[in-house]
Every structure is written in C-alpha cells, then in structure tokens.
Amino acid sequence: MEKNPKIVIIGAGAAGLAAAVRLKQKCFDNIVILEAEDHLGGRINSIKFGDSYVDLGAQWCHGQENNIVYELVNDLDLLAPSYNTYTDHIFCQDGNKLAKKTFDILLNVAHDVLRSGDVYRNQDKSFGDSFEEIFRYKLEQDPKRHVVMSYVDDFISWFHSFLLCYKAAPNWFDISVTNKEYEKCPGYPLLHWKGKGFNIFLDVLLDGKSWMEGIFGFYVIDENPCVLLGWLTGPGAVEIEKLASEQVMDACLYILEQFVGCTCKVPSPQCAIVSKWNTNPNFLGTWSYRSMDTQKLQTCALHLAEPIKKRHKNILLFAGEATHPYYFSTVHGAVESGFREADRIASTYSVEPKRKIIIVGGGIAGISAALTLLNHGVQDFVILEADKNLGGRIKTIYHEGKPLEMGAQWIHGSGNTIYQIAKNHNLILPEQSHEGTGVYVRNDGCIFDEDLVKWVDFRVGKILEECEHFTDTLEHPKSVGHYLKSRFSENLKDIDENCDKGKYLDLLDWHLRFQNIDNSCDDLQFVSAKEWGKYYCPDLNGQEHINLMNGYQSLIDVLVKKIDPTKIHLQTTVEKIKWKDNNNSVTVTSTTGKTYCCDHVLVTCSLGVLKRDHATMFDPPLPFNMRSSIDAMGFDSLGKVYLVFEKKWWDVEGFQLIWTKDAVMEGLKGWVKHISGMDSVYNHPNVLVVWVGGRGVALMESLPAELLGTHCVDLLRVFLKKRDIPYPIKVIRSCWLSNRRVGGGYSYSTPENDDSNKDRSQLLKAALEGDIPRILLAGEAVHLTYFSTVHGAFESGRSQTEKLLNYLKAYNNVCPKQINI
C-alpha cells in the first residue's frame, strides 16, 4: 500500500488543524489544507477590541479533565477560571430587581430537573415540552413555591434563552431529548483565555422590539470590566447580524436602561462588535445540537463520522465538533475528532497481525489474564487499554513523595493472591488504616458519646450479619436498605424510654451513608438482601485495611514487569467487537478505526462501561442471560476528596458527620450531605480524605477542585463551631463516575439479580460460536464472592483465562509453563 498518500483536508478550523498536526506527527507530510476564510481557526476568531481581545466564536475552555484542549495548554498559564455569573443581578422588565433567594429557588428546581434525568425519558416529546412539564410539576411539590409562583412564566422564558445559548437551536421545542448524549468534562466549566488568544467577547443584539425575547442577560468580561457581553439566541441571532453597530448599541442601551435604569445610570457605549456566524456562508451557524429530526430519524454523530469507502479503502473522512458522539459543540470535541480521523488514516497504512487472544482492558484483571497466559506458555496476545497507563481503577499519585490512592485504597485481608504477591515483594506496611474513627459530631455541634456510637455500630453490624443468611432462603427482604431500617426500628424498642431516640436514628442515617460508600451504590434500597451474603473476604483476622508501602502502583509495577511492552497498546479504546460469522475470527475495532483480528477476546473493562456500551460494542449482541445480568447489576460510584492543609490543625483521627433529620443546609452546598466523614491519611499528617457517596458523587465531580475545598471547610466550621479552620492549600479529588473509561466505582447486586437467570454467575459464562469460546468477561464484577475488590478482579482474570486455556489445551496441546510472579 502507498506509504505517503496525498491527503486533502477541507477546512482549517480546530478539527482540520488537529488532523494535520496529528498526521505530521505520524510522518505524513503530503498534506494540503483548503480554507475558505482569510484566517485559520474556523469558529475560533479572536480580534482586538479596545484595550483587550474579544472572541467572536468559541468562548471558553469547558472543563479540565478528559478535555484535550485543556491538556494541550495546561502548562502554559493561558487559562483562568471565569468567576462572572449570569445570576448575580436579576432584573425584571419593569426595572425592579428580583430577590436572589427567589431566583435561586426557581434555578435550583430547574437544575434539579436537568440532574434527575427525567426530562430525557419521554422519547416522544421535545426537550422544551418535557422540561416545562416536569419543572412545573416539581415546583408544585416545593414547600417554598408560594414565594415564586408569580415569576414562573418569566423565569421559564429566561431559562429557555439561557439553555439555547448552550444548545444553539432556534428554540428548545426543536431540541431532542437525546441531546443527553452530550457529556461535560469534569472540572471548572468556564475557563476564560488570558491575554490575546481565544479571548472573550460575543455580543449578539437586535434592533426593534423582538430583541427583548432573545437577549437573556449581560455579563462582564473577566479581563476588561468596561466591556459587557450580551448573549442573543433564537431567530434574533440571525437578524442582528444584518444591523449596523450603531443600531446594536442603541438597542443595548435601551435594554439596559429599561431593566437596570432604576438602579444605576447607564452611559452610552463607545463601540460594539457583533459576531456573524449565521450569515457567514462558510459556517451558516454556530455549533451542532441534537434536533427532533435527529430523534425521529434515529441518527447520531457516529453516522456523520462514518467514512466513505472505495474498494474497501477510506477515501473521504469527516471531522468537526458535530461528528463527536458526546463532546459536540465544543472545541475539544473538534480537536479530538481531528485526531480521530488522522489516526484512522494512519491505521489504514499499518495492518496488525492476527493474534490468538486479545485482552480488552489493562486493569488488574487484564494484567492477571496476561500473566496467566504467560504462565502457560501462551505468548500470542495483546492488551488494548484505553487509558495512558495500566492499572484501571488502581491509580496512585504522589504528594511530597508519598502515595495517595485515587482509586483502590487497601488490600482486604491476608488470605488472597494480591496480599501474597505484595508480601513476597516486601510491599506491605505493618501499620493498618481504619474507617469511621475519630469524633462523631452533629451539625448542631453535639459530640456523640462513644458508648452510644458503639451500641449503634454493634446493632447495625448484627443486622447486616442477619442479611447474610438470606442467600439460601426462598423468603427474603426487598433490599438491604429496607431490612436494615426495619430491624433497627425493632432494636430501638430495647432502649430506655428516657433516651433520646433521635440520636440513635441520626447515627443510623450515618451508617446508611457509610454503607452507600462502602457498596458504591446510590442507596441501600437498591442492594439485594438475598445476594448480600455471597460477598466474602477470607482470613481477615482484623486485617481489613492493609496499606502498601509505596501505594498500589508499586504492585502494578511488579506485575507489569513480566509482560513484554510490545504486547501492551495504550490509549486504544475498543468500539466494536464482531465475534460471529466473521471468517472464523473475531474482529476488534478501536475508536481510531484500527482493526485487530484474533480467535478469542477476554473483555475486562468495568461493569460501568459494559452497562453503557454492551448494546453497541458487541456484534452480534452478547447472549441474552449475559446481557440481562449486566443490565440488572448495580454500578454507581463513590468519591474521595483529599484536603491538603499547610499544617495539621486537628488532634483526632477523623470527623464523622451526622445530620439531624430536620437539618437546614443554609450556606452549605447540597453535595456535602452525602459525605460520611473526613479521615486522617496514613503518612500524610496534614491531609484529610473526604468520603463522598450516593448521588453526591456526580455533584462533587462537576465542581472545580478548589471550590470543593471551600465547601468542605465551610462544612467543618458549621459542625465543629470553629470559624478559624483554615482553607486547604491544595485539593485533589477522584473522578471515576465521569471517567468514560470506568463510569463509576465497583459493582453490587440489586434485587433484580435475585433471579438466577440474571445473577452474577451469568457473567462467568463464555459467548460461544458453536463450541468455540469467542468472548469471556473478567473483572471484579465477574467474581461470585470477591466482587468489589482488587483481589476479586485479579482472581477473575486468572480463572476466566484458565477456562480459555482449557479449551486451547484440548485443541492445541498448549503446554504449562510456570513464571514466578
């Protein structure tokens, strides 16, 4: 095949330039870029305006994690958080200022509608129809609704315009509920550009009276407080582009005087500049969104990204923000799509040899599978890992030269392979960690008596032990959560009538939050009571939380040394596995278009990825019982926030946070109520780790790390009644839920798994073509008793691989070979 093909890139926007850069990196130099405009950048267009630069197109860098744009400029000091908001000052049309508390009630309900996901469930309605219906319903349930009912219609009109600023649609009745495909990058959502490039200013206004419906607010430019940015959406955004700047200035002045003239004197603007993306024939708009036609036609970005082939060769490829399946409408989405198509071209000119086995996923299960193959003399395999390094949910970072675990925290017990490997390589620390220690303190400042804490802890432990006996019974409770609450209420009958039962119930609430974190679930009511007793950790002997001297990464390093680096392909995300009727082979295709052929595939990615992608990843679909088990099993998340202080200010092992039933969250953010406590961290005297569970994890991951630190200290100040607690100097947090390569924490069994056709055992079976095991699964979710643990994932990788080896031995006479790991 031709080694240096001539490549023409049409368009020099973010996607086109990214594709060219990536192709040059891969030594393709016969490249021509054709651009219709007189500048590079496409919808990135920064110009000098007054004493600063303004941007007529792309405005911000959205998010810090999994954002290719942020990663490319992170070390160059080009970005800063934008602290201006649209909600500081809200004015009504009559010139009166709307009270912030009133507006916040409406805004919180609106955000709750979006967060709940309810708006996306009715596929027959548009986004706008669904939102308005659910918003009004939720508002009716709000106890503070009497304060805001007279502003509902005005707020919906404003929020409509506000949402259109993100969706770029004529109105929200044209937006499909499948627009949920869009995903945010974790971290600060609005990072503005300092200095000259990709700066900030977009002013869209309309002359006449109709502009009043399109403009939803003005906002101060971060680096030029004398410049206001007005946002215009809907049909008016097209009409304003035809107006002279003088007409735009007059319209702006009229609006500002109409709304804020009663409060302050508004001077005449000196000049104005208007973006013109809609009337520019080279763009004809701003960015893509998922319309109702998208929903009706059942189409998506992947269809647009599909190359046109000639004689089985890709000859016409498509990139741009509109072709990205979940980062559409962003610059980082455009850049990633350019890289994707460049990689697709490059992969066309390099053909991978057929392998005996492909291991999908380089976490501990994938590593274990590879070592098992090597132990038995099988060299013909490759690991495909989506991340930049191996380890999966094992991720150790180092602060001041000492480990902090972002993922798996401890080895649980000494009776497992992981402990033995770590012990053989002198990786074990003699000191152990403990959970739920220190002071139990309530939001009103009440410190709980140690005897009371122990009494409740003992009773809760006994009730959960009772749950273990339901495994082999026909009759069983609805869920662990239901049983725990019911039995605890019965236990309360044993206490003295003069005791404050409220304290006992407050401690039960803490245990429920603690168990949500321990089981990586949103609520214990989703956890099966029948399956509860199947979890088992052998030979704990009081060794429940064993620390590794240099962190879990030291264990990964020991194991990976045994694997030839050429057998490891990093940053290779698997998109499709075709495993039947395929010329006696399995074809594995990555998101870059690179294709691998093999006889068998061992899939070790997380249950979160399988739940999200199994319907599109496997062709044909996995066997019915396998799919049913995947869909039925639970996989939510937990989170950690490390607070690094300048010096240690506490003298206890930790703070366990208890809430009264009627606690008021005044001044505190909602996610903090999902915190169980803040514990000291071994070998880090000035660090506290904050444990977050349930629905608070998604909220936590959506906020900037620095803001999390502020929220946590504000919370401690309320509980400890100390206003002098310092803010942390550094905040480090996990992001497993929003990480597309994981999608959560670890698995648990739900009441749906009580059906033997949907239980965990279905995942241990192979997907067969005839009698050939084409697909096997492995990972912590694929172990019947050690699920949710590192040793469970390791054992699963080994045992599932041994099943495949038994087949290979029977048909290929594979000889055992031992490698000491």
UniProtKB/TrEMBL annotation:
Transmembrane segments: none annotated. Pfam families: Amino_oxidase (PF01593). Gene3D superfamilies: 3.90.660.10, FAD/NAD(P)-binding domain (3.50.50.60). This is Spermine oxidase-like isoform X2. Residues 15-163, 197-345, 364-800 form the Amine oxidase domain. The lineage of its organism: Eukaryota, Metazoa, Ecdysozoa, Arthropoda, Hexapoda. One of its GO terms (molecular function) is polyamine oxidase activity. Coiled coil: none annotated. The gene is LOC108739254.
